[in-house]
Amino acid sequence: MLIALLAVSLALLAAALALPQAVAAPPAFWVHGILAVGVMSLIPAAMQHFVPVLARGQGVSPRMARLPLLMLASGVVASLALLGVVPFAVISGAAGLALLGLAILLAWVLHRGRQAVGRPHPGLYWYAAALACLALGLIAAVLIPLWPQWHAALRAFHLHINLYGFVGLTAVGTLQVLLPTATGRADPEVAGRLKRDLKWAVAGSLALAVGQAFAVRGLALAGASFWAWPLARLLHAWWRQQGPSIFALHGAAPALAAATVGFACALAGAALGLAAPLAIFLPGFLMPLIVGAASQLAPVFLRPGVATDWHARSRARLGRWGGLRALSFLPAALLPVLGYQCAGISALFGLLWFGAVFVVWLLRD
Q: What does the DSSP 8-state code read for residue 183?
């Protein structure tokens, strides 16, 4: 399922960047195609892979493993409502369906934390906080048709708490463990950093979302500033410990590092009003994030279990020229912050390049 959801997310990202000019559909439809259909189902599936590792426990049960399909269904219904295929009011039902799946997932994550052998890894609490942010975003979506007078504020809160809370907390919490795993260079500081920095990241997500919802620029700037502390500590640690791998020609690490830079740029762009919320977030952050994560994790998703030579060869194949691909994502993150308009064409090139490599790898293996 993870491989299928990964492929769907890659395809939706490419379609959302390449097709809006050719296919007449509301912009919100493309956004929900990526976030509600792709990301909201992919992240729970990925959490089900990582949480047993973080809690040092057994894997997910077959019944629980079907939960991402519920999130996928709710995302599809919401997208159809935005397209006008079903009544718009149905979007509240879709959000309610997603809330049900979310409640089950959050209860499972916390239960696994309590059952952990010893103390669970602090990354588990980043996932719990990310799911709590998603719950707030879904509640806002439920209220949009019910409180039309608050439509603009609820929509802005829904968008930003999902981007910088749900996706941001999940991604940054995972990246702190994933990049050292990809490089083979352990980060002895990661557990302490995750434990100390969660409060800043959560406060930053909430302040940014509320500030954007009510057009309070000072609060949005405060939110970005709160987030800046854990990001600065993370990037500084990587600079000291992982530098050669981050600037390598091949591998997953360059794209993962580029995604972290992209997230920082997306925060700055949103707080300072330099670009539309998704103009940096999608091509500058989400694309390199999924490309880098897929380069490292897709072999494990396809053949779980003990690592073999096949896994190493597959990672080498997927990560080949990863450093060059990472460079294709950076203009989409940096140029809008510097005042230049960027349509994300270079990022689309990098995504399609990896997509071709990914498809060839799947067909061969």
A: H
In this structure, the dihedral spanned by the alpha carbons of residues 294, 360, 23 and 290, taken in order and rounded to 10 degrees, is 10
Considering Cα of 172, then 13, then 75, then 96, what sign does the dihedral take? positive
8 A C-beta contact, residue 281 and residue 7: no
Tens digit of each residue's pLDDT (9 = 90 or more) over 203-232: 999 999 999 999 999 999 999 999 999 999
Neighbours of 138 (CB within 10 A): 27
Note the pLDDT of residue 206: 98
Neighbours of 155 (CB within 10 A): 15
Q: Is the dihedral of CA 45, 16, 337, 275 positive or negative?
A: negative
Euclidean distance between CA atoms 3 and 7, whole angstroms: 6
Q: What is the distance of C-alpha 288 from the center of its chain?
A: 10
Report the C-alpha gap between 112 and 123 in whole angstroms.
13
Task: Enumerate the H helices of the chain as residue ranges.
Answer: 2-18, 27-32, 40-54, 67-83, 90-114, 123-146, 151-160, 168-183, 190-213, 217-241, 243-246, 253-272, 277-280, 287-302, 309-319, 322-337, 345-364
- 294 has a pLDDT exceeding 70: yes
Which one-letter amino acid corresponds to residue 142? V
Displacement of CA 179 from its chain's centroid (Å): 15
pLDDT tens for residues 133-192? 999 999 998 898 888 899 999 999 999 999 999 999 999 999 999 999 999 999 999 999
Residue where the block lists tokens 């993150």: 333
Distances (CA, A) of 232 to 143, 248, 283: 36, 21, 21
Tokens of residue 222, six digits: 């405060």
Q: How far is CA 226 from the centre of its chain?
A: 19
Q: What pTM was estimated for this model as a whole? A: 0.95
Show the tokens assigned to 176: 């702190």
Comparing CA positions, the residue from 14, 4, 153, 151 lying closest to residue 65 is 4
